[in-house]
Amino acid sequence: MARKPTVYKRCDCPDQNRPKRGGCKHSWGYNLTNSEGSRTRASIPESVGLTQAQAQAVLDGMTPGVAPEPVEANLTFRQWAADWLSRRRVKERSLENYEIAIRVHLNPRWGQQRLRAIKKAQVEAWIQEIEDNESVANSTGANHWKVFQMIMKDALQNGKITSNPTYEVDGPYVGESTSYVFSPDECWAIYDTFPVRYRLIPMFGFGCGNRQAEAFGVCDDVIDSTRSLLTVRRQVLRTKETRYKRLLVERLKTSPRLSSKHTPMPPYLLEAVEEHTERFPPRATETVLWEHRKKIDDCKRGSARALFWTPHDNLMCCSYFNEALWKPALLKLGIKDKDGNLPTFHDLRHTFISTCLQNGIPEHTVAAWVGTSVEELQRTYSHLLKDHADTHGAVAASLTARPKLSAVRDAA
Question: Which end of the chain has fewer CB atoms within 10 angstroms, the N or the C?
Fold first, then answer.
């Protein structure tokens, strides 16, 4: 097997590996073997100022035996961001969010700048600007940073730049999320206050941890009363992707590799579902059988019987639910957070997760129920996981405690 070439320099500059201002001005080189077996020295273009590790990374990404292509000197961030966006294979909603981040936030800051001229110090200054800008929420700044990172990493991997200016740069600070946790009395007060036709929807939130669109998309074929199990695999979408028409789509919000999730249903929820379906029989509607890498218009269609409909015989949507049902109920009950704002439906999901974690249900089990990763769960609910030290700490400590002397003697 041919040995992988190693970068080197022939100069005598004392600062070869870590060039500083006024230091080494020479490029990194390597030995190139041609088709006839002759070895010649080749230089890596635009490698002045790189460390040895960075130059080696550029060389390792090249096709063996082929000299690297020169970097396009005048390629701007705007041009490469448009190219990067055109190659994304993600859901339409994610693609829309990427496009907004680039158009509204990244291009005004970096669009006219040459891609190869963006330096780490400039990126660090930009991060500081985001944190100092009170009009930009922490989570918004973090999302812009993630898109910027993906674009620059892609540019490095495609040989458009010789070093990634986002490498070892800490993104904008994101504080702990503050969500409202409903008490059991508040959950049941909401249930009692809601119109009878729709009171089951918030129960799916605090009883199973469903997202709002997932609760809207519950059909009679996903409820297994014998096993007390709810299979979540559909949601009601009304977005640019659906031309703002309400569609029941067999797709979860999370990774396309996750087609469904299973959540245990409490006995009270099973009883409520049985009562609801007797009074308000489910109605058939078209479903989109979504397939990865396909647009909704190109997907096959199926049929299912949805539980929830608006007075105008449409599938439930968040605008009608929030304005006509959710907010009036909370205002009537006087439920507000510490800042005087009305909690959201997503806080019901937060309540379910918080209750499970505080009562010692393992993180991986809760993550599987609600359809998220353990890492995301640990990051969002780290303040609750600290309580496990009190719950399980004594058990863990007893496993490694020194054996009693009498027990040791008996064993001998």
Answer: N
